[in-house]
Amino acid sequence: MPDDTQVVPALELRGVSKLFGDHEVLARIDLRVMPGETVCLLGPSGSGKTTLLRCINWLETPDGGVILLRGKRVGVRQTHDGILPMHDRELAAIRTRIGMVFQHFNLWPHLTALGNVIESPIHVLRRPRREVVHEAEYLLEKVGLSDKRDVYPAYLSGGQMQRVAIARALAMRPEVLLFDEPTSALDPELVGEVLTVMKDLAHEGMTMIVVTHEMQFARDAASRIVFLDKGRVIEEAAADEFFERPKTERSRQFLERYNR
Amino acid sequence: MTLRMDVIWHNAPEFLSGLANTIWLCGVSMLLSLVLGALFLGVLTSRRRQLRVAAQTFVDAGRCVPFLLLTYIVYFALPAVGIVLDKWTAALGTLVLYNTAYMAEILRAGWLSLPSGQTQSARAFGYSGFLLLRRIILPQILIAVGPVIGNQLIQLIKDSAFLSIITIPELTFVANEVQSYYFIPFESFLVATLMYWLLCSGIEWLVRRGEKWASLVRRNHA
Ligand SMILES: Nc1ncnc2c1ncn2[C@@H]1O[C@H](COP(=O)(O)OP(=O)(O)OP(=O)(O)O)[C@@H](O)[C@H]1O
Ligand SMILES: [Mg+2]
Description:
The structure holds two protein chains of two kinds.
Chain A: E1 11-20, E2 23-33, E3 38-42, H1 49-56, E4 64-69, E5 72-73, E6 76-79, E7 82-85, H2 88-95, E8 98-101, H3 113-123, H4 129-142, H5 158-170, E9 176-180, H6 188-203, E10 208-211, H7 215-221, E11 224-229, E12 232-238, H8 239-244, H9 249-258
Parallel strand pairs in A: 3-10, 3-11, 8-9, 9-10
Antiparallel strand pairs in A: 1-2, 1-4, 4-5, 6-7, 11-12
Helix pairs in contact in A: 3-4, 3-5, 4-5, 5-6
Chain B: H1 5-10, H2 12-44, H3 49-62, H4 67-80, H5 87-112, H6 118-124, H7 129-159, H8 171-182, H9 185-218
Helix pairs in contact in B: 2-5, 2-7, 2-8, 3-5, 4-5, 5-7, 7-9, 8-9
The structure holds adenosine-5'-triphosphate and magnesium ion.
């Protein structure tokens, strides 16, 4: 476990809140993710997991609290006139440092597998094409899809699409990678191939926040579990600890559903 | 009655130059209005309400004005308020103005048909503004509405015949000149009709080729 006083957290949330109307979807969430950690975010449907991820890269604007990426505030900037919201451009620059993998993959259908992976490094980060293509080929190999490089998403299985989506996120060399239920839209027999890739990433020291309902994955790969209910963090523990000795009644009930 | 195809043959260069004028006028104005239509799409889908309403009003109005009337306005009415354009500029301007309203509306329909999550994921990857439009949104829209744009180009070519009233030597104008000079209306208009038909067939062929490629991209979504 890295020493918190010396290492700057890769990502830190302090008192993040979000309201939809008068419905408090996130209530003063505190969360700290150190470099190399994999944090699994568990919780029942509607507990605010997706909203939390979307707040982190400002796809959803939080109503309160502070988000720090490597110690620098996300979404607002300090000026002479005080604190102002970031311009679209600054937000975009921050977002390139936070990778995201979606439940429904959201690959760009007009681009091939390789095209999807090289698209943003070339056009958003403006890195040289040759170098990017080279790295993208390596990433596709890493997720086991070298032979699909010229195939359009419409011709890939769900598991293959999600692996391309992971390669696409990695190609941006993100500091933190967010996963929102990456296997929930997959047929059961395709879940394993995606989780394998994710486990490898966790063990290689990628910093990740993973929303998932795959308890076995959380047990194997997570450094820490954060359990969310009704927009609050009600339990936070090391993975073994959480699964062996859940502290709250709510998390016990939650885990019971998966142990049958 | 014998067809005077020899006269037509004799005037082949005129017909061909008329055809060429029709092609370049419509081609160039289609490209320009695609670009302008894309800019309009940016405004039509903007977060600022006043901008959106203003753009929508222009588009709705633009699609209601008959092309012939628009030509009269640009070439005859504008000079009355001090804006004098030569006939080629007026012709091109009228075509672009007219067609942009349609393009904006077609592109917007395509935009509405995009699967949700596309813009989302692009934003998460750092896309915004024009880059988002150019790299992620427009290509998908063009795949979705390619055939509609092809159809619109055919409409535009037919409407461009009205430009003969401001003496633009496009295909219809040339056909009319030749027939009235040699008194061969049947032959002259027949040839012009055949040329329009060939041109439109060519466009339809291109659209079908494009559709083949688009179906590669689309398989699951069909
Ligand atoms: N755009 C929105 N407008 C209004 N309410 C919303 C919006 N997005 C989410 N909510 C509400 O916020 C709450 C949390 O939603 P969220 O999607 O974050 O939950 P979740 O934990 O990801 O659930 P799931 O496991 O079903 O994905 C839910 O009650 C949801 O109805
Ligand atoms: Mg969710």
